[in-house]
Design a protein that fits this description.
alpha+beta; two-stranded antiparallel ribbon
């Protein structure tokens, strides 16, 4: 967590960070993106606050992207037709433009409307993760957790969003079950 960002898992790639704006706390699902205030927190945490406005139009676009990503992560290696259509709908709002700067070539993301830039960047990031390795896109193995992460461990065996939280809960649960009876 960073100051002002109440989420338990931050710092994942942009696409998964957007998915992680919903999390379980106690018995309830919390959602950072219930209004423009939460959107402002997410934009700042994601490093997009200087490029994207925290307004209702941006919030609507980001929520569309989050819905599309949620469908896509159900089967990253083989997304459904519905998941692909949702991602492509968001991607239709932007493009990458190649430019030559004094420092050399650079790619610049552009959106057809400013409100779509954050959403487009998040979905574009998901495509990048798919190109790297779709099997590394994972949901936390704890049955009550809905967070996602990109497994960068050397042996590709990461199971938990956080070993300190979900990993320890699972260990404690197994220990309790073994010693109970």
């Amino acid at each position: 967590m960073t100051a002002g960002d109440p989420r338990p898992l931050i710092g994942e790639p942009l696409s998964l960070d957007l998915l992680n704006t919903r999390w379980i706390e106690g018995d309830a699902v919390r959602d950072l993106l219930t209004g423009v205030g939460g959107l402002a927190v997410w934009l700042k945490s994601a490093g997009l606050a200087d490029r994207c406005a925290a307004d209702e139009e941006t919030l609507a676009a980001v929520l569309r992207a989050r819905e599309a990503l949620a469908r896509a992560v159900e089967a990253p290696a083989a997304p459904s037709e519905d998941a692909r259509a949702g991602l492509n709908e968001v991607l239709a709002h932007g493009r990458v433009r190649r430019v030559l700067t004094p420092d050399g070539p650079r790619d610049e993301a552009e959106a057809d409307r400013p409100a779509w830039l954050a959403a487009w960047l998040a979905v574009d990031d998901y495509l990048r993760l798919l190109a790297v390795d779709p099997t590394r896109i994972r949901r936390c193995a704890h049955e009550r957790c809905i967070l996602h992460f990109f497994d960068t461990s050397q042996n590709r065996r990461r199971r938990w969003c956080s070993m300190a939280v979900c990993g320890n809960r699972a260990k404690a649960s197994r220990h309790y079950a073994r010693n109970r009876g």
